[in-house]
Amino acid sequence: MLDYGSGNLRSAERALTRVGADVTVTGDPRAALDADGLVVPGVGAFAACMEGLRAVDGPRVIGRRLAGGRPVLGVCVGMQILFERGVEHGQDAEGCGEWPGVVEPLRAPVLPHMGWNTVQAPERSVLFDGLADQRFYFVHSYGVRNFPLGAEGAPSPLAAPLVTWAEHGDRFVAGVENGPLSATQFHPEKSGDAGAQLLTNWLRTL
């Protein structure tokens, strides 16, 4: 698990340990590169998370892992920073750019979106296997409302990412599965048995 000064590391560490993972929390780029799987958590503002991530060479570590087909799981803001840009409080910050898209304020009558919500996962999802109609725990005011890579488009030799959606006011990305790169907007570690099953499903891909 990448420690870059952001995120509820201990609860995520405990959740992964409970489902059988051997977890090391580290800010060392070499250890993060060498791990079987890398979890990138995140809580707080997009720009601040990117600043902390750069301080531990996080964008390069993530990019090198993905280039070698080595799994990465982003959680909450750890998912958001994988996109091109984040716009929060009038501040436009550059993300890791692994996916096109902008993290922006949700359009909803009540923010933050805090609490349990269902998701719409695609049929071929590995992360959400066995989790139809389950609820997951969200805490956020920002999200990705348009994900062009997940839409029907021109034929490509590359498989399109599998995108899971949720609704709060309008629709936003709740999860993405894209080869070795996976991510969730919600917190699996706070999502009870459903979150534990999702983490188990991810561990099985390592």
UniProtKB/TrEMBL annotation:
<feature type="domain" description="Glutamine amidotransferase">
    <location>
        <begin position="1"/>
        <end position="203"/>
    </location>
</feature>
<comment type="subunit">
    <text>Heterodimer of HisH and HisF.</text>
</comment>
<keyword id="KW-0368">Histidine biosynthesis</keyword>
<dbReference type="GO" id="GO:0004359">
    <property type="term" value="F:glutaminase activity"/>
</dbReference>
<feature type="active site">
    <location>
        <position position="189"/>
    </location>
</feature>
<dbReference type="GO" id="GO:0000105">
    <property type="term" value="P:L-histidine biosynthetic process"/>
</dbReference>
<dbReference type="Pfam" id="PF00117">
    <property type="entry name" value="GATase"/>
</dbReference>
<dbReference type="InterPro" id="IPR029062">
    <property type="entry name" value="Class_I_gatase-like"/>
</dbReference>
<dbReference type="InterPro" id="IPR010139">
    <property type="entry name" value="Imidazole-glycPsynth_HisH"/>
</dbReference>
<keyword id="KW-0315">Glutamine amidotransferase</keyword>
<keyword id="KW-0028">Amino-acid biosynthesis</keyword>
<dbReference type="GO" id="GO:0016829">
    <property type="term" value="F:lyase activity"/>
</dbReference>
<dbReference type="GO" id="GO:0000107">
    <property type="term" value="F:imidazoleglycerol-phosphate synthase activity"/>
</dbReference>
<protein>
    <recommendedName>
        <fullName>Imidazole glycerol phosphate synthase subunit HisH</fullName>
        <ecNumber>3.5.1.2</ecNumber>
        <ecNumber>4.3.2.10</ecNumber>
    </recommendedName>
</protein>
<dbReference type="InterPro" id="IPR017926">
    <property type="entry name" value="GATASE"/>
</dbReference>
<keyword id="KW-0378">Hydrolase</keyword>
<keyword id="KW-0963">Cytoplasm</keyword>
<keyword id="KW-0808">Transferase</keyword>
<keyword id="KW-0456">Lyase</keyword>
<feature type="active site" description="Nucleophile">
    <location>
        <position position="76"/>
    </location>
</feature>
<dbReference type="GO" id="GO:0005737">
    <property type="term" value="C:cytoplasm"/>
</dbReference>
<comment type="pathway">
    <text>Amino-acid biosynthesis; L-histidine biosynthesis; L-histidine from 5-phospho-alpha-D-ribose 1-diphosphate: step 5/9.</text>
</comment>
<feature type="active site">
    <location>
        <position position="187"/>
    </location>
</feature>
<comment type="function">
    <text>IGPS catalyzes the conversion of PRFAR and glutamine to IGP, AICAR and glutamate. The HisH subunit catalyzes the hydrolysis of glutamine to glutamate and ammonia as part of the synthesis of IGP and AICAR. The resulting ammonia molecule is channeled to the active site of HisF.</text>
</comment>
